[in-house]
Amino acid sequence: MENILNISIHKSTDSRLSEFNLDTSEFGKTPTDHMFIAEYHNKTWSNFRIEPFQPLQLSPFNLSLHYGQTVFEGMKAYRMQDGNISVFRVKKHWERFNKSLKRMAMAEIPFEVFQEGLYAYLTVDSAWVPSVEDSSLYLRPFMIAYEDRVRVKVAEHFLFLIVGSPAKQYYSKPLNLYVETYYSRAASGGTGNAKCGGNYGGAFYPTLLANQKGFDQILWTDAATHQFLEESGTMNVMFIIDNKLVTPALTDSILEGVTRDSIITLANDMGLTVEERKISVNELENLLQNHKVQEAFGAGTAAIVAPIGSITINQTKYSLPNYSDNAIMFQIKKQLNDIRTGKIPDKYQWNDIIHIANQVNS
Ligand code: COI
Predict the structure, then answer these.
(1) Handedness of CA 265, 267, 268, 269 (dihedral sign)
(2) Residue 357: what pLDDT?
């Protein structure tokens, strides 16, 4: 890719890669050697650079620390079987990032900055993209207000960064979910479908309470009535019922998952009927009581496809069946991974390929 932005590259002299062990690593703990940064001042993005990964210098007056003007994306880069790197659905993630930025009154990012930043970052840190089954480089583009003001105001200066960390599966075992009917994640008209830091921070306390009761995650319900399913913290939620894929229809309090969208596309392609609709807690409980839920799983960038082992509704725990390797969710996950790693044709043009073999490292 042409370096239209004139990204300056300052390489680290000391790679940490040889000390990194994917098998013993924790998700999101080890950064790669570099990061991409861009700055927004006077309504213009500039100062594009790759730097060694290092702490940011922020004033204690930094506005994002006080008022939460922060937005992020979660994306993944895969090692393809020919050694090149594929980045999954760059444009779709960029579109969602900009939607979130708009909702948070932050400067939108031009596609070329997002895409070229990713390419530059992945080119210098290409060796960090793992190749073992079910692994990837988790990418975290994010933006923060970059203005020093304790007064409550919309920031005019922003910092956009891309960092990354090699990742295996986010969840290692089937999840025990707790259907939350008191606390809310997001209300209609709020920021629920924006990927802003506050949505996650606000979920910590109810999640902690659920964890203390032995649950892995919360299955959120709508804030107005607590009668309808929304999403599960780090993922959208999906069910196989009567051999159909059933998932809550998107609302302004549910994050529009890129993995959710990809799974729906693949399910349609496999000939499955897909229902995006309201699912009430009562309906789910009825179906669980009558053993009509064949599969339940979460779908997200980090989680990919995360099997759900049990769902607890009003103190009653409903266990889902043990899933065979041939479960529909695993068939879909395999297709997703096979597209990303180049094992099957990318007929939806979801992969942005970085041709490492042809790269001239500057
Ligand atoms: C993702 O799946 O990428 C997410 O952003 C969820 C979580 C890791 C914060």
Answers:
(1) positive
(2) 63
